[in-house]
Amino acid sequence: LCALPIYQGLQQVTGLNQLPTQMIDKLVAETTQAAYQGLTAALEDPIGAQLMGRLMQHLAIAIEAQIRDPQNIQRVQYLLSEQLEELKISYVRRSGQENLEDVLELTRRTKAAEAFSKSAIQK
Fold first, then answer.
1. Contact 75, 69 (CB under 8 A)
2. What residues contact residue 72 under an 8 Å CB cut-off, 6+ apart?
3. How far is the CA of 118 from the CAs of 79, 80, 121, in angstroms?
4. What is the mean pLDDT of residues 84-95?
5. Whole-model pTM?
6. Rounded mean pLDDT of the chain?
């Protein structure tokens, strides 16, 4: 439950972070259940199902347009690269210096994969 975005969001709301965990768990569970029931009811209703279908179509079109934007592709590549660097740093810290050669080899492979990925995207 702690991994749910709604749970984490509620923890940030002023005053709610002081509520007992059990109350927050119950609030998150009830909110999630209500959202699920609302979506289920909307899909059972013919008009709701039609609206949901149109929403999904528009969402797919918007996502596709964003994916095709070169700036967004570069941003995603940058974020993935940064995440990978963080993972490597974390791995090095965990493993200490004993596996340094393995880490260097992993870095070489990763750089080669990044280069391949960039060339594939540019084609």
1. no
2. 66
3. 14, 12, 5
4. 75
5. 0.37
6. 77
Q: How big is the chain by its Cα radius of gyration, in Å?
A: 22
pLDDT for 82: 85
Please give the distance of CA 36 from its chain centroid, rounded to a whole number.
20
Average pLDDT over residues 62-89: 84
Sign of the dihedral defined by the CA atoms of residues 47, 49, 52, 57, in that order: negative
- Identity of residue 113: A
Q: Do the Cβ atoms of 93 and 52 come closer than 8 Å?
A: no
Give the burial string for 43-73 (b: 16+ CB within 10 Å, else e): eeeeeeeeeeeeeeeeeeeeeeeeeeeeeee
